[in-house]
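Q&A FORM
Asked by: J.P.
Topic: structure of Molybdate ABC transporter substrate-binding protein

PROVIDED:
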Amino acid sequence: MKNLFLLLGMLGISSPLAADEVRVAVATNFIEVMEQLGKNFAEQSGHQVRLSSGATGKLYAQIKNGAPFDVFLAADDERPTLLEEEGVAVTGSRFTYALGMLVLWSPDVGLIDDDLQVLKRQHFRFLSIANPRTAPYGRAAQQVLETLGHWAAVQPRLVRGENIGQAYQYVYSQNAQLGFVAKSQVFKDGVFADGSYWPVPEDVHDPIVQQAVLLKEGTAARDLLEYIRSPEAARVIESYGYGVVVR
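REPLIED BY: S.T.
REPLY: Here is the structure written out as tokens.
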């Protein structure tokens, strides 16, 4: 048996007895991507990945209150930085894993045009955004509307999702006619979902820098973070409509 484990190690294959579970708190916008990355990582390492998703602000509060996570993938860089400064996260483990992109999207093919007449003339009943107080994508959406000069005018028509996932659901279910959503929610393998859309220029809001941080030391958790930084993972992340940092 000892020789078997030695052989597995030489081949770079984890033995079942060495397998562990990594508990990951992940921002709602990244859950689908992380499901794919977690599956790939599990197949290659033998470790299992358990995901819990939610708004970045709420996940941060849970972690501060002792929630048993090993890794945090936030939708911003603010909360991972705070956790590191507060001594909750492992110092020096923080890095940028994705750059978020915002899209104004509607299932209605003819609703959104390049001139954004839909916003200027308010040809809609409700506009969905994530809550700017707790969700980085919501904060970016507010900045876009302020930059375009529409923030005050759309207030009576705004619906705010708890997170970017709920903001997307409001539009997808047509409870809102359009909304600012994550590009990753309406884009995959180079193709946008049906409907009409306006890719938001990156210079009209602060960058959506999404960072990861290690919360508890562990070989499996560190291995997962290393995998997320790999070229293979970067290709998966880009295929879902995110930018990545070239290393």
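FOLLOW-UP: The chain has a mean pLDDT of 91.
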